[in-house]
Amino acid sequence: MAETLLDVRNLSTAFVNGSKKVTVVDDVSFSVAPGRTLAIVGESGCGKSILSLSMIRLVPDTARTVGQILMDGEDLAAVSPQRMRQIRGGKIGMIFQEPMTSLNPIMTVGAQLSEALKLHVPELNAAERHERAVEGLRRVRLPAPEAQFHRYPHELSGGMRQRVMIAMALSCEPELLIADEPTTALDVTVQAEILALLGDLQRDTGMAVILITHDLGVVAEFADEVMVMYAGRIVERGTVGEILSDPQHPYTIGLMGSIPRFGSDDRLLAIEGTVPALSAMPPGCRFAPRCVFAVPRCAGESPVLREVTAGHAVSCHFAPLEDNL
Ligand SMILES: Nc1ncnc2c1ncn2[C@@H]1O[C@H](COP(=O)(O)OP(=O)(O)OP(=O)(O)O)[C@@H](O)[C@H]1O
Ligand SMILES: [Mg+2]
Which atom number of ligand 1 is nearest to the Cα of residue 47? Predict the structure, then answer.
């Protein structure tokens, strides 16, 4: 088996409101190897962001997480809050969709970078921190890094802010970068530049990346592995080649059919119906109400995620499809 950097086991997160409990991430297990990119895809609300926040213990106060998050032999679910703060921004870097929510509006870019370095690399003196922060801005190809150092986030364009976020996330040379829709807020050309930059930085540093995206074009270009989520559960996972060219779960097949073709009008071969409310999930397969292949068994019995070929796992009673349809 390949070397493992992160091993998530049976992770569930639920929002608790009085006596009501809504599970939004349901018994999710997966692993990420060093230097690899795992893409997480699925419709809006399926739990991608809450899953990534659960891994770094940044879920909202009303949420509860159970399960194991093993990294280099340490269970992040069990370490102290102080240790977790060291890991966040240390071994694990994070970038989010909207940099303004993560950057401090009243601190200059340079001060924020220096503060992160102070926390995670305390042995540096002030001059070394400054040098390393400017170097970090140069590495993300921010023009005139020395000048940007003294600017405030609102003085930068969206693309520049996202570069600053990446510089912050990479300043401590993380082993794992979690990028939640890192480019959705940017226009298409800037998106492409930022993603190319991330790819280059990953090659230089050897870090692993968990990339959350709606964009299957981005998946095809950047991912090694893909995990497809539906209503809080993993429905399929495998290598990017298998998922894109031989999807087995009816939901994944639907997703692949809904890739908008560039410049064409026949955009969405959308999957009929909507995701059931998480508070009122059917007892069996959660996709059954929308699935064209569903039989009565699907509504009553939850399928388990099982391998159909080595490394390609599907949660459907009928997988592998070619044998069963
Ligand atoms: N603070 C909260 N309180 C209660 N429920 C929440 C909260 N935040 C998220 N949820 C619910 O958790 C579920 C998963 O949300 P999440 O943000 O992880 O989805 P997502 O897959 O990241 O969607 P998107 O693609 O739109 O970013 C959703 O049903 C959402 O309504
Ligand atoms: Mg999200």
Answer: 18
